[in-house]
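Quick bug: Acetate kinase output formatted oddly.
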Amino acid sequence: MALIGHRIAHGGELFTQSVIITDEVIDNIRRVSPLAPLHNYANLSGIDAARHLFPGVRQVAVFDTSFHQTLAPEAYLYGLPWEYFSSLGVRRYGFHGTSHRYVSRRAYELLDLDEKNSGLIVAHLGNGASICAVRNGQSVDTSMGMTPLEGLMMGTRSGDVDFGAMAWIAKETGQTLSDLERVVNKESGLLGISGLSSDLRILEKAWHEGHERARLAIKTFVHRIARHIAGHAASLHRLDGIIFTGGIGEIQY
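Here's what came back:
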């Protein structure tokens, strides 16, 4: 074995491209891991295991955020006080970049498009889901934000939610910030609405058997996807294709 590659969910502003893994790289990945707690810590465990099993083999970290480093400030800034961005790095980073990059490149080949004069919408739909607008080969907008929570409704993640709604829930129920982080990351989305499962295959079967909340979960999921696709198209000068990928995007529909 000559090389081992690791997909890392979040590179923050520290990583703009793939890098050879060193102790310093691992420390920096750990620094940004609170921004993607469901993913980065598991990624670090994979690196540790590979280092233990293959001590002499070089390892490379490929970051899901790096493809979106081409976002313009108007696409990555939040409407928050400037100090949160300048001091804390609070901004939109985007995710699934490895998928969005590969799928858009493959689409250029299959559709015989000129990469330098093209517009694509890529919909990565799985248990995690995101939309990306790719203009002339570069990411110019994407649905996920500072963390993989923003944007589309997903398997267990809520996607876009009015912060005011979460503040009201906290006041009414006495739940802590940690409680609500768990709710929006692990208890929401398809699972939260259906009360049944985060697996679309199970929900489709339940829908056909008359499970009303399974039907509602799927229809809400699809509505959010359509709305984000239409919104992301506004970032393009032309629309040559809408590409679906991921476990749901490629197989389910």
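Actually, after a second look the formatting is fine. The mean pLDDT is 96. Closing.
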